[in-house]
Amino acid sequence: MLLPRINHRLLLRHSPSPPSFVPFPSSSPSRFPSFPKTALPASKLVSGVMTAAMAVRPPKLLFRQLFEKESSTYTYLLADVAHPDKPALLIDPVDRTVDRDLSVVKDLGLKLIYAMNTHVHADHITGTGLIKDRVPGVKSIISKASNSKADLLIEAGNKICFGSLFLEVRATPGHTLGCVTYVTGDGPGQPHPRMAFTGDALLIRGCGRTDFQGGSSGELYQSVHSQIFTLPKDTLVYPAHDYKGFTVSTVGEEMLYNPRLTKDEETFKSIMENLNLPYPKMIDVAVPANMVCGLQDRVVKA
Ligand SMILES: [Fe+2]
Q1: Ligand 1 geometric centre to CA of 188 (Å)
Q2: Which pTM does this prediction carry?
Q3: Which of 38, 115, 123, 217 could cross-link to 272 by cystine, CB 3.0-4.6 Å?
Q4: CA of 144 to the centre of ligand 1 (A)
Q5: Res 226 pLDDT > 90
Q6: Is 292 in a helix, a strand, or coil?
Q7: What is its main location (predicted)?
Q8: Residue 53 is assigned to a structural domain of this protein
């Protein structure tokens, strides 16, 4: 039986207050029950999908951490390889490494459905626009609070589903006003320990700067403490960057050893105000491009 196409914008707009859901879209044959043609309340839609899927086969996470060396950016590939279609998503892809990322997707037989960003990056151009060009049907995702363009604009409490797995959206502003952290789901069949893709809100033994793009040190402090440090201590922390060779940390480890975020709020603000960092060299190019999904050339020509 064929699944009808899901109108993601409609679904998000008409979803009840959080949590709301972005289901795995598919028009290919599936063992899942078909969706009605009218949009259901999102929670019903997703719970129906997950129950049916897990009755057939429990989800299985495929995870890859990829690195772009010029901007020291991590791109993350996640997929549910137990699902017949192997739906996959990329978090924080970089334009320079789109070919590499898509070759991995192809080699592993995955169906890429989402290319998403944790925030509007200032140090590189996102790969989401290029990916959309090369893989028909892929939807770009960024937070509504970023004020940028994407196919799906998400908010705190939304859930982004790929197969029977999902990511929760947590608002973690402070590095930029639109930063979010994506956290793997909590519940049967979801990865354990959980995984938090923190963008630049929380880096391993550090954090993103707060002096551009609507940044605020006070807000960042509150975001990390209320939205990340409240996760289980064994939650794996996967940041958007690392400059020292670290690849992963845990919430518990950062709560103990992060040299900035273990301090009280006033000390943290003082540290952030006195970093004396140089002007970000890519910011004037990267931010305007990333506000339009990395498709700046098309916007200029249009
Ligand atoms: Fe950033």
Answers
A1: 33
A2: 0.84
A3: 217
A4: 16
A5: yes
A6: coil
A7: mitochondrion
A8: no
Cα 200 to ligand 1 centroid, rounded to whole Å:
5
CA-to-CA distance for 152 and 154, rounded, in angstroms? 6
Consecutive H or E run containing 166: strand 165-171
What pLDDT does residue 43 have? 39
How is residue 3 annotated by DSSP? P
Using 50, 70 and 90 to split pLDDT, how confident is the model at 48? very low
Domain that holds residue 192: 8-35+58-301
Is residue 174 situated within a structural domain? yes
Ligand 1 centroid distance, CA of 288 (Å): 13
- Which pLDDT score is estimated for 98? 98
Q: What is the pLDDT of residue 10?
A: 34
pLDDT value of residue 295: 72
Q: Which two tokens stand for residue 225?
A: 């403490």
Q: In this structure, is residue 2 part of a structural domain? A: no
Q: Distance from the CA of 72 to the center of ligand 1, in angstroms?
A: 11
**What's the N-to-C CA distance of the chain in angstroms?**
40
Q: What is the domain count for the chain? A: 1
Distance 160 CA to ligand 1 centre (A): 22
Average the pLDDT over 127-151 and give the result: 96
Q: Please say whether the beta carbons of 180 and 237 come within 8 A.
A: no
Residue 14 has pLDDT above 50, yes or no: no
CATH of the domain at 106: 3.60.15.10
Query: What's the gap in Å between 121 CA and the centre of ligand 1?
Result: 4
Distance 137 CA to ligand 1 centre (A): 27
CA of 123 relative to ligand 1 center, distance in Å = 7
Q: How far is CA 85 from CA 53, 116, 218, in A?
A: 12, 19, 43
Q: What percent of the chain has pLDDT over 90?
A: 74
Q: Is the peptide bond before 193 cis (omega within 30 degrees of 0)?
A: yes
